[in-house]
Amino acid sequence: MLVETIYEKLLYSTLKIEILNENNEILRMGTSFVFLKKIDNENYKLLLISNRHIFHCGQNARISFVKKIEGSLNPNLGKKFIFTIKNYFNVYKEHPDANIDIACLNITEIISRNDEKIFCNCLNTDMLVDFKEEKVSIAEGIKYIGFPHNGYDQLNNLPIVRKGLIASHPKVDFNGEKKFIIDAKVCPGSSGSPVLIDLYDYQSKTSKTRVLGVLSASMVVNKKRKAIKKEVDFGIEKYELNLGVVYKSTAISELIKIA
Question: Which domain holds residue 114?
Answer without folding.
Answer: 6-258
